[in-house]
Amino acid sequence: MREIARLVLVLGLIAACSAAALSYVRTALEPRIERQSDFYVRGPALERLFGAPASEVLGNKIIVEADGLSYPIFYFQTEGRLAGLAVEAPGKGGYGGDIVIMVGLDLESGKMLGVEIISHSETPGLGAQVEKASFRRQWRNLEIGSPAALSGNGGRIDAITGATYSSKAMIDGTNQIVDLLMKHEEDVRAMIARRDDRASAESGRDR
Question: What ranges make up the beta strands (E) of 38-108?
Answer without folding.
Answer: 61-66, 69-78, 81-91, 99-106
